[in-house]
Predict the 3D structure of the following.
Amino acid sequence: MPDWLVAIAVHPVTLLAVGGGAGANARYWLGKVVAWAQGDVEFPFATLLINVTGSVVLGFVASSFLRHPDPAQRAWYLLLGTGFCGGFTTFSTFSLEAFELVRDGKGWLAAVYAAGSVLAGVFGVWLAFKLAGPPHG
């Protein structure tokens, strides 16, 4: 394979685009399958499943590649961690960051981060709906 093609294939833009596209597709199709399987149940099981599985995958990817001594191995984190898991669910990044705060002995900061993220996120959606006005259509 020519060097220029290898350089394009392992470039961060390529890794992020491929990983993110695969993650977004996985989220969409898993969500469709779960929605079909759950029928008329009014609970967001698909999002819950996606958030938890994304967190598990990111945990494995981060522990395997994020601090790997070989820079070529760290590139896998861009593809699978930032790319795939970012396209699949950003909740996995939130979970990893909260875990790292707890692991580093900053439990209170982790609690503030978790509660603040959820409360601010819900408030942000509420505010956007208020500012956007009534739904159209």
